[in-house]
Structures are given as C-alpha cells and as structure tokens.
Amino acid sequence: MLLVLLIAIAFALITVDIRGGEDSPVDGARQAAASVFGPIENGVSGAVDPIGNAVTAVRESGDRHDRLAQLERENAALKAELGSDDRSRSRLKQLDKLLGVAGKGQYGIKGAQVIAIGAAQGFSWTITIDAGADDGIERDMTVLNGDGLVGRVTTVGPGTATVLLASDPDFTVGTRMEAGDELGFASGQGDRPLRVELLNGKAEIKKGDRLVTFGSQADKPFVPGVPVGVVSRVDPSGGDLTRTLYVTPFVNFSKLDVVGVVVQAPKKDPRDTVLPAKPKPTPTPTVTVTVTPSAPAGGPDQQEQ
C-alpha cells in the first residue's frame, strides 16, 4: 500500500508540474533539489579519476607483482596520459570555438562544463553545468557552444544550473532565416530534426538554408543571432498560413562538454555574422572528347578518281 501511495503521489506531482509550465508550484522544490544534488553531481564528476585509481590499486594489490603486472600498469598509465592529452586538446578546441562565437556575436559569456546529462529533478532533455547563482547565472539565460544554440537555463542552484536542451519537445525558440526576414518558431523533437513553423506560408525556402535565433524581449530567454541549424527538408506548401521546415541543428547534443552561458547580451543584433562560413562547393570535373576525322577508305588514288 505504501508503494502504491508513493507512486500515486509521484504521478500527481508530475501532472501538476507539467500543467504548471514555467509557473509550476513545484518549482521551489526543484530549486531546492538543485541545491542539494548539484554539489553531489559536481563532486562525483571530479572524483572519477581518484576512484579509478583506487580500483586500480586494489586490483594490483597482492602477491602477483611479476613482470606481467608491471607491464599492465605501465600500459594503463600510458593510456591514461594519452587520453588526458586528447581530452585536453578537445576541450581547448571547444573553448577556442566558443570564444570565437562569443567574439563575433559580442556576447558576454560565463564558461561552464557539463557535469551531468539529465537532471535529477525531472525527465526532460537536460544537462547540468558547473556554474550557478554564485557565478552570476540566472534563469532564462541563453546557453551556447562553439557550434550554436544549446538551450536555456531553467533551474539555478548556488554552484550548478540545469539547462533545457533545444532538442527537448517543450523547447521553443523564435528563428530568422539567413539573409532574410522570414520568421518562425523552432521546436525540439528529441533525437529528430527541429520542427520550424514559418509565419509566412508562401516563403521561398530550400534545403541548405540556415537559421539563427530571432531574440526575445529584453534578451531573455534568447539573445539574437545564435546559429540554430540547417534546413534538411521543406514540406510542400498547401496554401496554409504557415510553412513547416525540418532543421538539422548545428549542435550535437550527445557530445556536449564546454558551453557558455550568455550573461550579457550584445548591444546590437549581430544578424548573420555568427554563422560559420559556408563550405565551398566541390567543382564537378568535366571531360572534353575531341573526335579526329578518319581518312576515307581506298587511299588518295581512289579519292582522285
């Protein structure tokens, strides 16, 4: 009976939370949970290496300290060193791209690292970052990385924050087509492309066109000009008031590590300046065939006759 009662209470809280939306009555409890679980997540993330070393030490303890065990230790140490270098190079590359995006868009950002995937407070497409209220992070701030739009901050604890990813079905952001004024709204669809509803049902859009964020009032929750994605499919226009597009996001949501929270919006809309340079089309090789006329049969004497 106790188990049934707890399950019923859990479903009731989930229902109330979903219906409440941004003004959910359980938001206070969610923030309290972030304050409790955030430091734990951060600590677990930082303790992975010591635990791994302890496990290795236990495994190697005992009387079997022969040549084979020594080679295994040396091999493991070498792999760890190489792996650490690879990860450092990867993070340095991500940070460099992030700073490049921030510079082009004139975004004031606070750098952060992803320490958990999926929040302890819900079931949405979320990540937890190691920056919170103590770092100047507030709710409804734009989160990006070196590729483009990652999401927006939804819950803030003292040292951590929860970010709702752009791939979440409850995520919606205003968009603008590159080099134009066609506006729309992009919504997440999990691991599928973003769904964009353009306000102009007769807009001329083609595969390969790109989108950026349109921006929000007072720049919350979204600042303008952040790259969103590339059009991968356009539904045929059937005379509807809107037009549906499917957009492949620039960001790979399964490979998030270094991100930036926009704590200061740009003074003016950067428009399309943050978008990456378009790849140059590969030229198609052409083959020219020259036909040489052959001499008539019979030789020169027969030609004179």
UniProtKB/TrEMBL annotation:
InterPro entries given in the database record: Cell/Rod_1, Cell/Rod_MreC_2, MreC, MreC_beta-barrel_core
Domain of life of the organism encoding this protein: Bacteria
Sequence ranges assigned to domain Rod shape-determining protein MreC beta-barrel core in this UniProt record: 122-262
Positions of region (Disordered): 267-305
Record bears the keyword Cytoplasm: no
Bias type Low complexity, positions: 285-297
Family matches, as Pfam families: MreC (PF04085)
UniProt keyword terms in alphabetical order: Cell shape
Annotated function: Involved in formation and maintenance of cell shape.
Stated family: Belongs to the MreC family.
Protein name: Cell shape-determining protein MreC
Species of the source: Streptomyces tunisiensis
Gene label: mreC
